Amino acid sequence: MRTGFYLLAAFVTAVAGSPAFRNMLVHEQRSAAPVGFVKGTAAPAAKVLNLRLALKQSDMAGLEKALFDVSTPGSALYGQHLTKEEVEAFVAPAAETVSLVQEWLAANDITAKTISPAGDWLQFSIPVSQANTLLQADFTVFDHPETGTQLTRTLAYSIPAALQGHVDLIHPTITFDNPLANLPVVSSPKILKEAIPDAAELESRAVPASCATKVTPACLQAFYGIPTTLATQSSNTLGVSGFIDQFANQADLTTFLKSFRTDLSSTTKFTLQTLDGGSNSQTASQAGVEANLDIQYTIGVASGVPTTFISVGDNFQDGNLEGFLDIINFLLAETNPPQVLTTSYGQNENTISSALANQLCNAYAQLGARGTSILFASGDGGVAGSQTTTCSKSFLPTFPSGCPFMTSVGATTGTTETAATFSSGGFSNFFARPSYQATAVSTYLTALGTTNSGKFNTSGRAFPDVSAQGQNVQIVVDKVTESVAGTSCSSPIFASVISLLNDRLIAAGKAPLGFLNPFLYSAAGAAALNDVTTGDNPGCGTNGFPAKAGWDPVTGLGTPNFAKLLTAVGL
């Protein structure tokens, strides 16, 4: 036994002392904490950090090609979505990568566990004192006075030179929470001064006059031609993300349906899935505004589509991503993930590292390749980001709207639709403009001229992609009807339209739409949307971006027209 111990100790010493592991290189760094955070004292040496390590994925270029092959109309592979195993083959790290990283961790007496289906994410826990030594870091307590939030972070960390090209990032290190964005993306309603259309106009569009001040499912059916007939395909499912202890209340849904969808059974229920210790309390006082909104405007608009509320608890495994990565890994582990996933939460792009943003974006590519349409609210701060109170000289893009592998949804308002002033939109500082939107965005930038020059990245991925009503939306919370506003309303509405299209496609023996953007930006897809050409999204001491003909960074390509979309998808 003693001989074996000495042999093991000698091996560990040799590994730890090898030149490859001794030579350290800075892997990620930032010059300062995000605006709003103040650097405090050194983190307590004994404080345990739950760290996650992202291994280099084997063939993301191949997965991206496969994603666009199955998502681009006209492609020979359009609609032939990948299986779980096919996606994992692109993502799984090389054996050499796994071996080398595990060798480094073992040399430092660290045992890690795999936390993703493809094996590309590892998790381990070590005290601050060891993390500082292991990563040549300086973990410090950062305060956020406005909210009282405290975070333990470092502004830089290093890894051995031998691991460069094998480790993408270690998290949480230089990424910060956006404490304000952990709130639901729901704004207090603002009654905008708008011209009320005359009776003749309302009659010609079959839009009830009441929709000027109160938006209901009936209004959306009139605005967008959304059918009331029940969906027929049980295999077609719609997922609704739930975070930060926001609970969807079944009794409130029943009241909502009795009030606003009398043609649907008031006993219609949603399915519940949980992860990270999630739950869904049915105590009336714990009903969440965000969760109720999302459930009521999926079940209440996507008539008959099986809907699942996916509640992410507080025991998340992805650090300050608050379960954003966990929910995607959870769905990637399923054989049949939902065909549509809508999420009404987000944060400012500048709060997270570009490497981490890229990792989460790659996870969306994986789920999109499986055939899931991923939609997110674009945010409620106009060009100032996501519920931001402090704005720098440059506009603040939101995340994950900057990811090119998901669909960002902005907001409109009024019976003659115009851009909602809060609708976040702009250009990513992390992600380059994808080819599918190159022409549409270039046309807009030409028309924009020098307006806002120097305040945004002219070559970045532009968002939002589409939009829907987001003002004066009626929901029921704790048995009381109230009005809410935000892109948080818009995402479940647009997601419901996609779910109803998928129902028709599946019934016709065709594949669901999956990753939407190549279709939406195609000539047929763009022509099937209602172009919104008025309004803007002020912030940062400016009027923001103006809505214009075609795509714009306030309302995207526009709002849905169900009949035209049916034709565009070949039905």
Automatic annotation (TrEMBL):
Swiss-Prot/TrEMBL cofactor(s): Ca(2+)
Keywords of this entry: Calcium, Glycoprotein, Hydrolase, Metal-binding, Protease, Secreted, Serine protease, Signal, Virulence, Zymogen
Residues at which Ca(2+) binds: D531, V532, G550, D552
InterPro entries assigned: Peptidase_S8/S53_dom, Peptidase_S8/S53_dom_sf, S53_propep, Sedolisin_dom, Tripeptidyl-peptidase_I
GO terms classed as biological process: proteolysis
Active site annotation, chain numbering: E290 (charge relay system), D294 (charge relay system), S488 (charge relay system)
Coarse class of the protein's main subcellular location: secreted
Cellular localization per UniProt: Secreted, Extracellular space
Its job: Secreted tripeptidyl-peptidase which degrades proteins at acidic pHs and is involved in virulence.
Enzyme class: hydrolase
Segment forming the signal sequence: 1-17
SUPFAM superfamilies tied to this protein: Protease propeptides/inhibitors (SSF54897), Subtilisin-like (SSF52743)
Reaction(s) this enzyme catalyzes, per UniProt: Release of an N-terminal tripeptide from a polypeptide
Enzyme Commission number(s) from the entry: 3.4.14.10
Residue span, Peptidase S53 domain: 214-571
The protein's name in its UniProt record: tripeptidyl-peptidase II
Alphabetized Pfam families for the sequence: Peptidase_S8 (PF00082), Pro-kuma_activ (PF09286)
GO cellular component assignments: extracellular region
Superkingdom field: Eukaryota
Record-level Gene Ontology MF annotations: metal ion binding; serine-type endopeptidase activity; tripeptidyl-peptidase activity
Cofactor binding mode and count: Binds 1 Ca(2+) ion per subunit.
